Every structure is written in structure tokens, then in C-alpha cells.
């Protein structure tokens, strides 16, 4: 018996769903425009970096460098000695007075000496504390010790400075009196956390295996510190010293509170802004710590410590 197959001609394709790509068209890349933008930024890494840094660099240029530029320009003006008015005429008279008057050279050298002494004291105190926190304390104790180091920063600057004024006064617990020694002690206490934390971070990155290897090779404590610990933590020491040195160099409040009759750079700037009403000369004096810090950073950079931070 012959049977004929019942064949039905193919009909038209079903219509595409709403929003779907038409047949034969290339499917869009997964993720859409957002993914294409990410791929573009990945291929152009310098552009991505410039976009990320544009806002911070703009703020740095306007708020910081702009303020420094305004200060340098103000230092080239002068104040009329008769009327006290500000005369916007460019002159080097303020800088000439700074260079020729012996009293300002003495104050500058004294300020550098105080900042160096504070930095050295903080380093001597901070290094053993940071080493104990990073290498001897348990992980749980480390967290509590970091909190203990940070706790003084929660208190007011003036409260801590006046507390030392009470301690150092003639009738106080220590009774050492006021002066440069009191200034150095107070500043050392105020800026000590800024030295402890960078050194602690540097020591925490130091592998314990290096210390163990030095001990296995017969190196004693001092030689291990000199040949292993100190070279690897020196960048962290530099980071801490930048904080303590710069903060001490420009401080004037502590000197007013416990410094007695001592004068530092910050006091000269403050007195010329307030009592003397000589803004151009105050701006000229304020350039001194800026130049000192630039020289300090240049000297540190030659050691290569900044590249290892």
C-alpha cells in the first residue's frame, strides 16, 4: 500500500520578543556601556590614574600650593612704618632684615635645635615601644596597645599643654620651671604617637624569619638591630621624623604656654601678625620653616628612604 507523507511547508519565523535583538544581528557585549568603559580604562592605565588623581591634585594645587604662593607674594610687600598700612610694592627688605639681623638667625637655629631634640627623644622612646608592640605582644594585645597610643590624640592640644604647664610650674609635681627644656619635653609628649605608629607599621612588615636567621647565624641583639632591623625600618623612622620635626618647627602655642621668655620661629610669625600688625614680615619669617623642611626632605631623599615608604 502506497502512503503519501503529509508535508507542511514551513511558515514564517515567530516574531522577536519585545526588546530582543533582531535575527542576524550581533548580540551586544555583556555588561553594556559600563563594561566597555571599564575595558577602555584598563587599556589606558595612565588616563585612569589621571582621572583618579585629578580631584586631589586640584585640591592640592588650589588650597596648598596656592596658599604658599600667596604667602611668598605677601612676603615681598611692606608695611608703612608711619601709617601701618599695607603697601603692595615688591621689595626684598623683609628678607634682607631676616638675613642681616642676628636675632632672627639665633631664633631660626634655636627652632631647628628644638625640633631636632624633640625628634631624637621621640625616636629613642618610640622605637622600643613599637618593637614590643609589633614583635613581642600578642595580636589581641597589639590592638589594645595601638588604641592606647591613639588615645592621647583624642584629648585637646591645649588641655595637654596646660597639663604640662601645671606639672612643670614651680609649685607643680615636677617643679622644673619653664623654658626651652619644658618646651622640648611638652612637644616630645605631644608628637610621640606620630613617631610610634610609623615605626610600628614598619616593624610589623619586618619578617620574623629574618630575625630568626640572624640569631641562627650567631648575631647578637645589637648586631641584629644594626644590620637587619634598622636598615629595613629606616624609611618608617624617616616618616615619623617628618611629622615630629615639622610639627615642632612650626609650633608656637606650646612655647607660649611653657616656653617662658624663649622665642621660636612660630612666635615671631604670631607676634608680627597680632601685636606688630606686620603681615609682610610675618610671611617672610614663615618662609623659613618651609625652606628648612624642603632642605630636610631633599637630604632624606638622597638616602633613598622616601622611595621605600
UniProtKB/TrEMBL annotation:
Domain ABC transmembrane type-1: 108-300
Top-level taxon: Bacteria
Alphabetical list of PROSITE patterns matching this protein: ABC_TM1 (PS50928)
GO BP of this protein: transmembrane transport
Sorted UniProt keywords: Cell membrane, Membrane, Transmembrane, Transmembrane helix, Transport
InterPro entries named among the record's database cross-references: MetI-like, MetI-like_sf
Keyword Cell membrane carried by entry: yes
Entries under Pfam families matching the protein: BPD_transp_1
Subcellular location: Cell membrane
Annotated transmembrane regions: 51-77, 107-132, 144-164, 176-197, 228-249, 279-299
Membrane-topology descriptor: Multi-pass membrane protein
This protein's GO CC annotations: plasma membrane
Bias kind Low complexity: ranges: 18-29
UniProt-annotated stretches for the region Disordered: 1-31
Family: Belongs to the binding-protein-dependent transport system permease family. CysTW subfamily.
Record PANTHER family: INNER MEMBRANE ABC TRANSPORTER PERMEASE PROTEIN YDCU-RELATED, INNER MEMBRANE ABC TRANSPORTER PERMEASE PROTEIN YDCU-RELATED-RELATED
Protein name, entry field: Spermidine/putrescine ABC transporter permease
Taxonomic source organism: Planobispora siamensis
Amino acid at each position: 500500500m502506497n502512503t503519501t507523507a503529509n508535508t507542511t511547508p514551513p511558515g514564517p519565523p515567530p516574531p522577536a520578543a519585545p526588546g530582543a535583538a533582531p535575527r542576524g544581528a550581533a548580540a551586544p557585549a555583556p555588561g553594556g556601556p559600563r563594561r566597555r568603559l571599564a575595558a577602555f580604562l584598563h587599556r589606558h592605565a595612565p588616563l585612569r590614574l589621571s582621572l583618579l588623581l585629578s580631584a586631589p591634585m586640584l585640591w592640592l594645587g588650589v588650597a596648598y600650593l596656592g596658599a604658599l604662593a600667596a604667602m611668598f607674594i605677601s612676603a615681598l610687600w611692606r608695611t608703612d612704618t608711619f601709617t601701618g598700612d599695607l603697601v603692595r610694592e615688591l621689595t626684598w627688605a623683609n628678607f634682607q632684615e631676616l638675613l642681616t639681623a642676628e636675632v632672627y638667625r639665633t631664633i631660626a637655629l634655636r627652632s631647628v635645635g628644638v625640633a631636632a631634640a624633640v625628634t631624637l627623644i621621640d625616636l629613642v622612646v618610640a622605637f622600643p615601644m613599637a618593637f614590643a608592640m609589633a614583635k613581642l605582644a600578642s595580636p589581641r594585645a597589639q590592638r589594645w596597645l595601638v588604641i592606647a597610643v591613639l588615645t592621647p590624640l583624642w584629648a585637646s592640644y591645649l588641655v595637654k599643654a596646660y597639663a604640662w604647664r601645671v606639672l612643670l610650674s614651680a609649685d607643680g609635681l615636677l617643679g622644673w620651671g619653664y623654658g626651652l627644656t619644658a618646651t622640648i619635653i611638652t612637644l616630645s609628649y605631644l608628637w610621640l604617637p606620630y613617631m610610634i605608629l610609623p615605626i610600628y607599621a614598619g616593624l610589623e612588615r619586618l619578617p620574623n624569619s629574618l630575625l630568626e636567621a640572624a640569631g641562627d647565624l650567631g648575631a647578637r641583639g645589637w648586631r641584629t638591630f644594626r644590620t637587619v632591623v634598622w636598615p629595613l625600618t629606616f624609611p618608617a623612622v624617616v616618616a615619623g621624623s617628618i611629622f615630629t620635626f615639622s610639627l615642632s618647627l612650626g609650633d608656637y602655642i606650646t612655647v607660649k604656654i611653657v616656653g617662658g621668655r624663649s622665642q621660636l620661629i612660630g612666635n615671631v610669625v604670631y607676634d608680627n601678625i597680632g601685636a606688630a600688625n606686620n603681615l609682610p614680615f610675618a610671611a617672610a619669617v614663615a618662609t623659613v620653616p618651609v625652606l628648612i623642611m624642603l632642605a630636610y626632605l631633599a637630604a632624606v631623599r638622597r638616602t633613598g628612604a622616601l622611595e621605600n615608604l
